[in-house]
């Protein structure tokens, strides 16, 4: 029996307008009514996931900032993590010369050193505003430590930076592609999969009782955790080959879950 359904947001649950299509909304409600718990897993902030949960009117566990924060649907904090401040400063300095749009996540706030026109376009895609803080990097400290550094730009150059950072900081940082134009720097050993592990332990749910669905490289850590992984059909080929099944929508994956549980119930 499947007891937990975990879905990514951008490119998966959400459409291009960052809305939940009605068929996905209805599917998650049917899933919850059938007794299957729902979890949202995203690189987005906890507040953004809460906004989507409220809109869905479905109780959802939340894995935010690629696993930096893990909350149950009752708002119990299971896990949180952040960079060591001096490491974050060195990472920021190493990436600065590429000239990408920067988004710095500290706690539950998104900061940017300045708000250019390019930054405003990225901000418009988020479900919460950016806070301008020109000295945000200089302010990094134990009580103001970033959970995630995000960079937006052209993918070929982002991959160039990704390779350079991995070479310069081996074993110190996770560098993952999280969207078609975004690369995230995460504290080492922080990922959606690690975050999901904390949730499974709390809920007493086994990996084989879990279904996950996503579309990008930051979802791969979840794919390895369960035999029931779905990848969106539009995903990069390197992501698609790592999942056990493909789907065109969250609703399609939910239909599989409901059918699988109905079959298991007959046995």
Automatic annotation (TrEMBL):
Species of provenance: Brevibacillus fluminis
Stored SUPFAM superfamilies: HAD-like (SSF56784)
GO cellular component annotations of the record: cytosol
Pfam families recorded: Hydrolase_3
Entry keyword set: Hydrolase
Nucleus found in the keyword field: no
MF (Gene Ontology): magnesium ion binding; phosphatase activity
The protein, known as: Cof-type HAD-IIB family hydrolase
